[in-house]
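Example record for the data management plan.
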Amino acid sequence: MRRVVFNQKGGVGKSSIACNLAAVSAAEGYRTLLIDLDSQANSTHYLTGLSGADIPLGIDDFFRQVLAGSAGKKPRVKILNTPFTNLDVVSAGQELADLQPKLEQKHKINKLRKLLDELAEDYEQIYIDTPPALNFYTISALIAADKVLIPFDCDSFSRQALYGLLAELDELREDHNEALQVEGIVVNQFQPRAALPRQMLSELQAEGLPLLPVYLHSSVKMRESHEVCIPLIHLDPRHKLTEQFVALHAHLTG
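Corresponding structural encoding:
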């Protein structure tokens, strides 16, 4: 299973959702890999504690090899072990931004899919964290993936962006990956006592949008998790938000 977590709007919790679902997956015994495609490397830092120059080359080095195109030499990717059993990471680096126009010019949009075909032999679940833009890396991920999750944070700007995003995914599916499934919209940073989010979600459900039934509540515990670089399932297994991630994972894999 290859799952992309994507939304063009920043600040909706892509990295938090991708990393915590991957951590739950690994904790439940699945051999799990997270691929970080965002040059900010937030997922890499969250799951390894590494940052800046301490992060070993990962997906950026893979794409550099793709561009080098040595005859008869297949590009390889370095995989990092995390402190958490069954959970590995392919790191991101700042060079991704510089490589992007060269990769576009050389039409290397299918190279990530070929890499994932190989990695799928070693991992049962692969999560892909993407940048907040429909760029080369995100399109590569969507071409390579089976499913896409869309984080949504219950405000009017996110709602308007959501319609455009769903239309773009329909077009991409038709042109590049007919098997891609929009698995659902993940409601994040939900405030159950506020009237506006409840009303908005009711309206979206009435419109037939694929809201997933488990809502992730807003909690300071997520910020604490980021600060210590420990996913919630390991930081506080009994916390309400942790239980929501576990329930969301169960829904997705059930």
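Summary line stored alongside the record: The CA atoms of residues 46 and 236 lie 16 Å apart.
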